[in-house]
Amino acid sequence: MADFYQNGIITTLHNLNSRRVEDLESELVQFSKHRPLGLILPSLYSELEGSALPAIIDQIKDVPYLNEIVIGLDRATEDQYKRALTFFGQLKQPHRVLWNEGPRLRALDEELQSLGVAPKELGKGRNVWYCMGYILASNKVESVALHDCDIVTYDRSLLAKLIYPVANPQFNYEFCKGYYARVADGKINGRVSRLLVTPLLRALQHSVGHNDYLDFMDSFRYPLAGEFSFRRDVLNDIRIPSDWGLEIGVLSEMHRNYSHNRLCQADIADAYDHKHQDLSLNNDQGGLSKMSIDITKALFRKLATQGTTFSTETFRTIKATYFRIALDFIETYHNDAVMNGLKLDIHSEEKAVEMFAQNIMKAGSSFLENPMETPFIPSWNRVVSAKPDVFECLRNAVEEDTKEFSGS
């Protein structure tokens, strides 16, 4: 049971009453008659063979209010794409699977690459971007939710709570960020958010000063959550990173494009757990190490666009301030865990903080060495300007893939 406290500058919608999912869904069915609702599922083919995604689809297939589901399928061969069509065929709602490695979508991607308006990196950001493009191309829904496909504690109430704020026509929200307690198997998870993002934001507030952006970011209870929802018009202008900075980048774009009263966060799950990344202490090109560098650079880039000047000395100050704040947070989390009968390994927590502190300097050096780096994927408005028929091409590619390989 949550409290009702409103902290920060973003509206928080709490889980105060454990409302029945059937009641939420009944309202959402009515909303969907006037404001059609959709869902984006960015997936790796390997997730079809795991335990999480089959359980997720088993619940989603009975959701009564969805007008369209768009699945982005990465790392799939032709045979695997065919199996994916069968797998997702159990969905009762209208749906399409984007075969991102298929020849038709690859050909479109190559054309967009030649125009300089395509994602430069493979990964979740690229997958999500093409799914957003398809939502715009199909023009069937007005509000869309997005969540990951590796949630092992999934319950369809998560989706209902996530999409409700942008589905209710009496609300004026353009965007909703999901949040939840990262507690599973008797321990506190969410290390990157707890031990990097929050203490780094506080360190930046000390080092470069409070500003609206830092206060905005610090208002989100779980800024790295991969679950959010938005109104369809958000998709036209958003520029998202193609690297691990995706979630931070999306929040930064919301800060740039919308006033605070059009944004909110919602408590969408009592329990949440998903696939965990390795800490990768000795490899800054993988796992949580690379993630921490990408996230930190995303914050630095955003602050630079607002006029903050960085130098090596600045980054040293930020690192030192971060390190002290993060170590204090470890004690706080440990005490919270003890009071709740949970486990928290102080040694592994401090190892993570030491790595994150080193990676703040690596991110800073990379930022100074390559200030013109632009990992952002262009907005769909820009893509349409460069290739006016892009939505027709995208829609046709997906339809032709579906027709050829599903036998329909």
Detailed description of the structure:
One of its GO terms (molecular function) is transferase activity. This is Glycosyl transferase. Helix 1 crosses helix 7 (156-167) and helix 12 packs across helix 14. With 408 residues, this protein is α/β, with parallel strands linked by helices. It has helices at 21-34, 45-48, 52-60, 78-88, 103-114, 124-138, 156-167, 191-207, 212-217, 234-237, 246-257, 287-305, 312-339, 346-369, 380-386, 390-406, and strands at residues 11-13, 37-44, 66-74, 95-99, 143-146, 175-180, 183-184, 187-188, 228-231, 263-269. It has 16 helices and ten strands. The longest helix has 28 residues, at 312-339. The strands form two sheets. It has an eight-stranded mixed beta sheet, with helices on both faces.
Tell me the strand percentage band: 5-15%
How far apart, in Å, are the first and last alpha carbons?
Answer: 47 Å
> Looking across the biggest beta sheet, what order are the strands in?
1-10-6-9-5-2-3-4
Can you tell me the overall shape?
Answer: globular
Rg (CA only) = 21 Å
Derived structural class: alpha/beta
Helical proportion? 40-55%
Question: How is the main sheet built?
Answer: 8 strands, mixed
Number of helices: 16
Low-confidence stretches: none
Rounded mean pLDDT is 93
Order of helices and strands: EHEHHEHEHHEHEEEHHEHHEHHHHH
Number of strands: 10
GO molecular function, one term: transferase activity
Protein name: Glycosyl transferase
InterPro entries: Nucleotide-diphossugar_trans
Keywords: Transferase
